[in-house]
Amino acid sequence: MLNKKCIVLGGNGFIGVNILRHLINCNYEVSSFDLYLPKNPIEGVTYMSGDFTNDMELLEAIHGQDIILHLISTTNPGKSMIDPYSGYNIDIIQTIKVLESIKETNAQILFASSGGTVYGEPESCPIKEDSKLNPISHYGITKVTIEHIINMYNSVYGMKNIIMRISNPYGPGQDYTRGVGLIDALVKKGLNDEVVTIWGDGNNIRDYIYIDDLCNAIELLCKYDGNHSVFNIGSGCGHSINNMIEIIKGILDKNINVEYESKRKNDIEHIFLDNKKLKEEVGFIPKISIDEGIKRYIRHLQRITK
Q: What does the pLDDT read at residue 306?
């Protein structure tokens, strides 16, 4: 018997493609909504092409769905400081339209927020979900604003929407040229003997989670029926950029050419997430260590380039 109907908004993206495949394997009835139809569709997925900014296409796509995995973001941390308008003008407004369209139904949104930006610079780590939110980028402010709006709908309309504060996922399907993906850049540029630019001294600490672990956590939240609405999703461990460089150098058994540039104003120095709530509420335990995850990713890249 099929599970609930689930649509992934942003199904062509890095997380989107992987979660589609994961949900199909878990016997969900799965749809994807994105700007274009993929060249390599996943068997069993119903694909819908449409524009997130087109109300008719968006609302038609989510009609009748039980779970809406909202992975679409029109910006990223760096881009938002150059073009600050997109997140406010599109992401917030369109998310409200989705909420308005489902507020009288039993549907729910699982919203992909940003565990790496909504907290700002924390006083201590690992950081918990009830810590102060103090983002230092337009991207982070956009995410926090959407979080507040979702929590308001939960409170006023009795909805069960969930906010997923995701750390830094990596693995098959990631593309660092889109503005995110340190591990992706280090691995690919390391394999190709290209120079990697690091902003700052490389001591910034982040939380990295392998994409399979992330998909497992999201699927568990699709089944969650408890009273909590906000969850950190991360490995629970922090690694500096310099540490990641050394790990990948060791696995590749070759040098990585690195250039250090001045720190960017909106870069957070250290953050990694406390995932205790996720463990206690849904039983999530990260299974793939940073070393194993990188080895798996390298094997994947070598396999697809043969």
A: 64
Superfamily of 5-171+208-236+270-288 according to CATH = NAD(P)-binding Rossmann-like Domain (3.40.50.720)
pTM more than 0.70: yes
Kindly report, residue by residue over 59-90, the tens digit of the pLDDT.
Answer: 999 999 999 999 999 998 888 999 999 999 99
- From the list 306, 197, 182, the residue with the least C-alpha distance to 247 is 182
Lowest-pLDDT range of 114-118, 178-182, 294-298: 178-182
Residue spans per domain, the chain: 5-171+208-236+270-288
User: End-to-end distance of the chain based on CA atoms, in angstroms?
Assistant: 39
Closest CA to 30 of 67, 83, 59: 67
